[in-house]
């Protein structure tokens, strides 16, 4: 970490993680400071890359995206050109919420959110028509037990 984080910064980060839509006045009140110093600290954290873009978390099921698949991909292709084509295919598909390159037997894991199994099959058929893969295993999540974007800030040592 290149930026120094103190106890006040840590409190601000916790508030931003909890609800980035709250007012600057509310954040200042929660951390025991005033508005201008809090704004300056947020700007410093943003400039340092600690704080990124603000988004809203939407309820996938309420919007009809009831199926979440974890897709395990093995490939026998490891050339840069294949990887670039694969990454482009993933970037162009909004169904892919997360993609990770792994160590071990599985090369990639994707988190894919779709309306139903038919929509997943459409996604799958489109992906394999664009990029050659050795093996694909799709696992349907039966129940989301925990999902969070919150980082364990208590593990950050303050300066």
Automatic annotation (TrEMBL):
Family annotation (SUPFAM superfamilies): Dimeric alpha+beta barrel, Winged helix' DNA-binding domain
Assigned GO CC terms: cytosol
Single GO MF annotation: sequence-specific DNA binding
Occurrences of domain HTH asnC-type (ranges): 5-66
Entry keyword annotation includes Protein transport: no
Keywords annotated in UniProt: DNA-binding, Transcription, Transcription regulation
DNA-binding among keywords: yes
GO biological process terms, semicolon-separated: regulation of DNA-templated transcription; response to amino acid
Protein's recorded name: Leucine-responsive regulatory protein
Organism per entry: Tritonibacter multivorans
Gene: lrp_11
């Amino acid at each position: 970490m290149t930026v120094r984080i103190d106890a006040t910064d840590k409190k601000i980060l916790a508030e931003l993680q909890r609800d980035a839509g709250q007012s600057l006045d509310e954040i200042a009140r929660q951390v025991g400071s005033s508005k201008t110093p809090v704004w300056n600290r947020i700007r410093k954290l943003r400039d340092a890359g600690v704080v990124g873009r603000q988004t809203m978390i939407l309820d996938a099921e309420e919007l009809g995206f009831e199926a979440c698949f974890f897709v395990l991909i093995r490939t026998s292709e490891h050339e840069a050109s294949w990887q670039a084509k694969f990454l482009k295919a993933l970037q162009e598909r909004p169904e892919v919420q997360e993609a990770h390159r792994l160590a071990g037997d599985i090369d990639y894991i994707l988190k894919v959110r779709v309306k139903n199994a038919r929509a997943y099959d459409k996604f799958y058929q489109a992906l394999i028509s664009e990029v050659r893969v050795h093996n694909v295993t799709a696992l349907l999540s039966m129940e989301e037990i925990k999902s969070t974007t919150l980082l364990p800030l208590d593990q950050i040592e303050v300066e």
